[in-house]
Amino acid sequence: MAIGENECDLRLVRLPAWGKVAAADGPVPFLVLDDEGRPVEPVFRFLRDFAARGHSAGSVRSYAYALHRWWRFLLAADAEWDKVTCDVVRDFVLWMGQAAKSRRVPRTRSLATAGQVNPVTGKRYPGDRYQARTIRHSNAVLRSFYQFWIEQGQGPLVNPVPQDRPRGQRANAHHNPLEPFRAEGRLRYNPQLPRPRPRAIPDERWLDLFAALRSNRDRAVLALAVSTGARAGELLGLTIADLDWGDQLIQVRRKGSGARQWLPASSEAFTWLRLWLEDLGGDLPPGAPVWQTLRRRSRVDRELRRQPLGYDALRAVLRRANEALGTNWTMHDMRHTCALRMVRSQSLSLRDVQTILGHSRLTTTQEYLITDDHEVHLRVRAYLEHRSQQPQAVPAAGYDPGDLAVLLGGGHDER
Fold it and tell me: Phi and psi dihedrals of 318, rounded to 5?
């Protein structure tokens, strides 16, 4: 039973444990290696071109993992990468829609909460299935990969990840000559994506989270995140030279573009930042990282040394706080909280919020105009409480209480 044919049962497909994604020194920061440790040539040439176009190391890593998964599927399908058709891509999408993620280490503590909704935050824990956003990203990676090889005169004659357009409509049919051309048409096998609903951390929950932190460093990180709206990666890249104590500004390097931007922070955040730098002690050089942690270099060298705080270590900080509170907050929730607070302010325009968040398009910022469910629930509860305290009108004698209950939606005592 070959993949791409109708009789293939995709539930029986198991990807082989083949190759890996590894970090590398050089212009291409991440590579897809085969079982013998050699770079996969088609993937390497594509990633080299992808990196040369100015994409960040994180984007290269993301594309490498998507292509590694695709190569493993090709091995299971007994298909050659340069001869695939859209039927194989279709079955790959169907397989991702029902398959469980492959994990190097089985779940332990997170097994009981995988895919469940946290009763405190109302957020769903990551599950073991591929989400719609992951499948859409995979399709975008494959289309870009095959488009590169088609331009090189190699690979399949037609891109196996086709686009769907309305019947009879050509690309950019109604293009405004004053605006740049944009890609039109959705990818054919893209699943529907639920509309994101930004969610702020309620003030009382924020105080609980802040109190659960253990050090001035952790408090300074979260205070800066919730007052500037900067992403976790942008905050972790701060150096001493990126701090403006006089105007209480921090300079971040924006995700994607790498552009430098100064962001205003709250005085409370700078207070915690000063306390943290006092904990470090001594005069730090301008290029020293702001966030540091104590780690042992190796099992042989047991001496603790200061190293830059990484993303995994920052996640561990939140994980400890979440375990103590029974929550599942993330660093990106701080960004949502900051954005929603600024949008609700009467002193800031939507254009101001766009500038602070670093959005290239105003339509992205407009997503924060959606009212948070928690705020709606608070207002509705206040409304219902107010209604319950209002005196009810007494019906005239002779009316049936049952009929009044159906008509008016409430109980009426017969007087």
Answer: -70, -35
pLDDT of res. 165: 65
Which candidate in 55, 72, 124, 359 is catalytic?
359
374 classed as catalytic: no
Q: What pLDDT does residue 297 have?
A: 61
In the numeric block, the tokens 């500037």 are attached to 228
Q: How confident is the model at residue 1 (pLDDT cuts 50, 70, 90)?
A: very low
Question: How would residue 382 be classed by pLDDT, with cut points 50, 70 and 90?
Answer: confident
More confident site: 34 or 373:
34
255 is catalytic: yes
Six token digits for residue 81: 């990468």
Q: Is 368 a catalytic residue?
A: yes
Where along the chain do its domains lie? Answer: 10-165+180-187, 208-369, 373-408
Specify whether the CB–CB gap between 263 and 230 falls below 8 A: yes
Question: Which conformational region is residue 409 in: left (phi greater than 0), alpha (psi within -120 to 50 degrees), or beta?
Answer: left
Q: Choose among 5, 72, 79: nearest CA to 32.
A: 72
Tell me which long-range contacts 237-240 makes (C-beta under 8 A, separation of at least 24): 238/289, 238/290, 238/291, 239/286, 239/287, 239/288, 239/289, 239/290, 240/284, 240/285, 240/286, 240/287, 240/288, 240/290
Residue that the structure tokens 């060298």 belong to = 301
Q: Which CATH number among 3.30.70.2190, 1.20.1050.10, 3.40.50.720, 1.10.443.10 corresponds to the domain 208-369? A: 1.10.443.10
pLDDT (0 to 100) of residue 92:
94
Between residues 413 and 146, which one has the greater pLDDT?
A: 146
Residues whose CB is less than 8 angstroms from the CB of residue 335 and which lie 6 or more positions away in sequence, other chains included: 225, 229, 230, 231, 357
Considering the candidates 231, 336, 341, 412, report the single residue annotated as catalytic: 231
- Is-contact 32 67, C-beta < 8 A? yes
Q: What pLDDT sits at residue 355?
A: 94
**Distance separating alpha carbons of residues 206 and 154, to the nearest angstrom:** 54
Q: Which long-range contacts does 272-278 make (Cβ < 8 Å, 24+ apart)?
A: 272/216, 272/219, 272/220, 272/223, 273/220, 273/223, 273/224, 273/243, 275/216, 275/220, 276/215, 276/216, 276/217, 276/219, 276/220
332 is catalytic: yes
Q: How many CB atoms lie within 10 A of CB 84?
A: 23
- Angle in degrees, CA 302, 304, 306, rounded to 5: 145
Residue with tokens 């339509």: 363
pLDDT tens-place string over residues 65-118? 999 999 999 999 899 999 999 999 999 999 999 988 877 777 777 777 888 888
Catalytic residue among 253, 255, 319, 344: 255
